[in-house]
Write a structure and sequence with these properties.
elongated; alpha+beta; Chromosomal Replication Initiator Protein Dnaa, Chain: A; Alpha-Beta Plaits
Length: 334
Amino acid sequence: MPTLARIDQVELLQHVIVKAVTGQRLFEDDTDRDLFLRILEPLLTRTGTRCLAWVLLPDHFHLLLRPTTQRLTTLMLPLLVGYARGFNKRHGRRGRLFRGRYKSVACEDNTLKELVRYLHLHPLRSGEVAKYKDLESHPWCGHGAIMGATVLGWQSGEVLDSFGRKRVRCLLAYRRFVKAGVGQGERRELAGGGKRRVRRLGVEADPTRCDGRVLGTSAFVRGIEEAQEWQRAPVRGRAANIFSRNCAVVSVTEVVEKVAAAIGLSPEQVRQRSRAPEVRKARSIVCYLAYIRNTHPGKAVAAELGVAHSTICAGAMAGETLLRNDYRLHHLRW
């Protein structure tokens, strides 16, 4: 059976698992682990990827990542190649270090807490850490950074945001939540997707749509599939849309309102010039949907956004790329 292509979309929560070849350790000592983190840190910044949780074990590692500007592949390829070269050079070995390609599971946001707990309890389950109270001081796991015991500028604080607003209460809630999972043992349903894992996790009692590469509800899987289909669809230019009978005609004002709602902004924020990434993204998407998809004159789009007419084409090109890479915006296809 052929291996399915990975689901790689911007803003999609991804559980990444990488294992060493059989009989080989991935990290021989702390120097290897430190080398891995020194390669990972600049790549997270360069690719705009947020790392929510992580753990390094002797023969494999887990990462919980959310790409924000580029796809996950742009981080994983240099990370694995760079570490394999450094490891082989240091230990005087040759050949493959990793067992096949890396595994990535697209996860719905409602599984975030369970995934973080699953990853951060790995050292306790594997015997790397003897007691739960020692987990905060364990240097090769992201639990200590969340609790504030260690400072990692590259680890995202998004996890604590899901436990409330006030930091002290969030930390207490997070600590109680993680400690409650100590006796759960190995939870294989969090290491992949599919109907059986979704049922065991309790995300949905009777899923009607499932995918082994996706961990989430049927509605989430359906949205991912629609986004994938749109990525593979041929791109039609402005000229083709002008003469198309099926071309939807949505007013420029309505395009602004729909895009603003999809991204979580107000229409006024979209119309105002700003260097904020979300605002710039929204304005580029408006250019593409209004100028290319709905064939409005460039002057009308420029007047709505308060920009020069000459910038509309460049904005439309950027907007098309953003729409194709962000699975949350696939419904903006009219």
